[in-house]
Amino acid sequence: MSYSPPDPPREVPADIASKLDEQSPEVLRQIARFAEELAEHREREARLAENEEDKEVEERPEDLPDDVPAKATITIKEINDNRYYYWQWREGDSVTSKYKGPVNPDE
């Protein structure tokens, strides 16, 4: 083992390397754990985003109206003791619904 401190990787900005050099061994270990967790989180987010893009490429169901996005799901609502199908999807913070038709009691 060398008695001189290690050189930071070229990818690490000089100001970060300088700040790390000022930290105690315990804080450096905490930073290392945090950095590993953050890297895993970002990789997971990238995989999820990639999967979402793949889902958007999937074919639209034949009975899906043109003004309803492919990500919409079918929901059953009960109104006055009658059950109806609705397309539902999220637009920002709100949920949008569009009538599909009555629920067939034989299904």
UniProtKB/TrEMBL annotation:
<dbReference type="Pfam" id="PF20586">
    <property type="entry name" value="DUF6788"/>
</dbReference>
<dbReference type="InterPro" id="IPR046738">
    <property type="entry name" value="DUF6788"/>
</dbReference>
<feature type="compositionally biased region" description="Basic and acidic residues">
    <location>
        <begin position="8"/>
        <end position="22"/>
    </location>
</feature>
<feature type="compositionally biased region" description="Acidic residues">
    <location>
        <begin position="51"/>
        <end position="66"/>
    </location>
</feature>
<protein>
    <recommendedName>
        <fullName>DUF6788 domain-containing protein</fullName>
    </recommendedName>
</protein>
<feature type="domain" description="DUF6788">
    <location>
        <begin position="56"/>
        <end position="106"/>
    </location>
</feature>
<feature type="region of interest" description="Disordered">
    <location>
        <begin position="1"/>
        <end position="24"/>
    </location>
</feature>
<feature type="compositionally biased region" description="Basic and acidic residues">
    <location>
        <begin position="41"/>
        <end position="50"/>
    </location>
</feature>
<feature type="region of interest" description="Disordered">
    <location>
        <begin position="41"/>
        <end position="69"/>
    </location>
</feature>
